[in-house]
Design brief:
It comes from Tepidiforma thermophila (strain KCTC 52669 / CGMCC 1.13589 / G233). The chain contains eleven helices and 13 strands. It is of the alpha/beta class. It has two domains: 212 residues, P-loop containing nucleotide triphosphate hydrolases (Rossmann fold, 3-Layer(aba) Sandwich), CATH 3.40.50; 65 residues, 2-Layer Sandwich (Alpha-Beta Plaits).
């Protein structure tokens, strides 16, 4: 399978801050590929580099089979975190204006704009000021704009931030139906979203890729179940005892909980209750998820918890 994007040893620095530090990633053509990482990990910097078809200061970047050029940039559709639409325009005006920038004009521009407004559930608001649209509608409009010229590569930087579940479902159903054979490169903090829509994902930390694979592969490398433990209060002694029972390599701290991966959750839960039951505020057993894989790879392990 050919690759839509290949980054090898990319380094990008802003003053003293290193945003990408030996970043290497291969995105297969036609895939929906998710880049996941905490804020400041470098995922948005990488998407911006690809969106601008910019040669990195260090390392190499290949986009759609060749080096970054202006002609390559014309084959990319981009949705950044911030909405770019003019609030005084109408959705139809905005799409027609954007179409012209990509060389789609006349009847083709009008038909394509009308079709996308219909598919994204915006046809009834086509002639209303954008300022009157909800946040979710504006995000759908941004994605429609990015799809106007039928790009070969669609870049989405946290496209569903602030979007309610119903609108998120509509947005993704439409993107997946309208992308044709385009590659989708998605940067997100929403692990459930990535698990649902991505063929492949990469976990990024401190400007480097630390793990790649399909969601199923990354979950397969975990144990089968996760025990989520909430303590009454932080205690290094209790945390050390829990790590001893579960095995430190299978314990991560996230969102005020300890996540323990295991093949026998009921047995581990019984051991925990017997050993440190009075310190436990809540305990839940789940099937291992992409979120659990993420925290195992990216978040601090129990060895770093004091």
């Amino acid at each position: 399978m050919s690759s839509a994007v290949v980054a090898e040893g990319v380094r990008r620095q802003y003053g003293e801050r290193v945003a990408l530090d030996g970043f290497s990633l291969e995105v297969p053509e036609g895939s929906v590929f998710g880049v996941l990482g905490p804020n400041g990990s470098g995922k948005s910097t990488f998407l911006a580099l690809v969106a601008g078809a910019e040669r990195p200061p260090e390392g190499s970047l290949t986009i759609l089979g060749g080096p970054p050029t202006r002609s390559v940039r014309a084959r990319i559709g981009t949705v950044f975190q911030e909405n770019a639409s003019d609030p005084l325009m109408t959705p139809l005006e905005y799409l027609l204006f954007a179409a012209g920038l990509f060389g789609v004009t006349g009847r083709a521009a009008r038909e394509r704009s009308a079709d996308l407004l219909e598919r994204f559930g915006l046809a009834a608001r086509a002639n209303d000021p954008i300022s009157t649209l909800s946040g979710g509608m504006r995000r759908r409009l941004e994605v429609a704009r990015a799809l106007l010229h039928r790009p070969a590569l669609l870049l989405l930087d946290e496209p569903t931030t602030g979007v309610d579940p119903e609108e998120r479902k509509l947005l993704w159903e439409t993107v997946l139906a309208e992308r044709g054979g385009a590659t989708v490169l998605l940067a997100t903090n929403d692990l459930h979203e990535a698990d649902a829509v991505c063929d492949l994902v990469a976990f990024v930390q401190a400007g480097r890729v630390v793990a790649t694979g399909s969601p199923a592969e990354l979950k397969r490398n975990l144990r089968k179940q996760t025990v989520r433990v909430e303590l009454h209060s932080a205690s290094s002694e209790v945390e050390a005892r829990i790590a001893e029972l579960a095995g430190a390599d299978n314990v991560a701290a996230a969102n005020g909980e300890l996540l323990l991966t295991t093949d026998d959750a009921p047995a581990l839960a019984a051991q925990l209750l017997a050993a440190v039951g009075t310190a436990i505020r809540g305990l839940r057993i789940d099937e291992a998820s992409l979120e659990d894989a993420y925290f195992q790879f990216v978040q601090r392990r129990m060895e770093a918890v004091r």
